[in-house]
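Sequence only, no structure available. Ideas?
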Amino acid sequence: MSPADAAGPFFCSDAARVRGDPIAGTAPYGGVWVLVEYRGGWPPNGFDGLDFEPGVKARVYRAARAARARVLLVRRHGRRASSGPVPRWAVLRYDGSGAYRQQWGTWNSDADLAGIVDALGAPGEVGHPPVLLVCAHGQHDPCCAIRGRPVARALSERWPDLVWECAHVGGDRFAANVVVAPDGVYYGGLDGRSSVAAIEAHLAGRIHAEHLRGYTDLFPAQQAAVAAVLGHVGPAGRHDYAVTETSRDGDRWRIRVAGCPPRAPSFDVEVRAYRSPSTRLTCRGAARSSAVVHEVTSILPG
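Reply:
I predicted one. C-alpha cells follow.
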C-alpha cells in the first residue's frame, strides 16, 4: 500500500479548509445562465456530454457563447425518476436592477431545446422569484456531491420551489457552492445550517461576507473589495454598494466601493494579487497547480 493510499482518499474541499484558502474573489464572471432539467445521470462535462441531437446542441452552444452564458444541467433534489412533470429549461439574466429577468420553457424532445436560442435573444420576463442553484455534480468532483447534496436537501426543505441541484459551477474546493441567480451571487464553504442562514439573509436583503465568493458581474479583485466592505460595515443588499472606480498598478489594485442611498459611505480598498503555493486544487486532478489570491491590504473611508 502506498503512503497516499494509507492516508485515505483526497478531498479537495477538506484540504482547502485545512489550508484556509481565501474564498472572496473566486466567483466566475458572467451574467446569463441556461438551465436544462435532466433527470438521468450527469456526465463529468455536463450538458456537453449528453447525447442530444447534434444540430440542436450546436445551436444552443452558439447562442450561449454569443450571450456569454453558462449552460448548466439541473434537477430537483431527490427526484431521479424519469416520470413526473415535463422537464423544464430556463434562461436567467442579470441586468443590474434586481428584477430577476427569466424565461422558462419545457421540453419533451431535443428539438424543444431550440427554444433556448430564442430566449437568449430576448430580455426575459420579470416577476419570477430567484433561483437557488446548488452544485451537486459528483461525476465532476466528489466534493460537489458529498457537500452539495446535504445543502440541497436543507435548502429544499425550506424553499422547495426555488432550489435546484446543478452541474459544475466552478470552485470545487469551496464546496458546497450555492449560486443565487440571476442575482449572480456565489456562496461557498457551506453546510446545511450555514446555507439556510446565508440564503435566508440574502432573500431578506442582507448579504454577509462570511461565505461570499463574489458577485459575478465583478472581476475577482472587485469581488474581494466588496466582500471586505461588507465584512467591515455589516451585511447589505445586492445593490447597496457598487464599484465606481478601479485602477491597477502591477499586482496591486485600488478599488472604490460606494454606498448607494441611503448608504452614503464610500471606501477605498487596496487589493494585492498573488499566486498561492502549488497544490492539488480538485479531487480528480492529481496535478498540482496554484490559484490567484486577491488579498485586501487596506480599507479606508473614501
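Residues 1-6 have pLDDT under 50 and may be disordered.
Hope that gets you unstuck.
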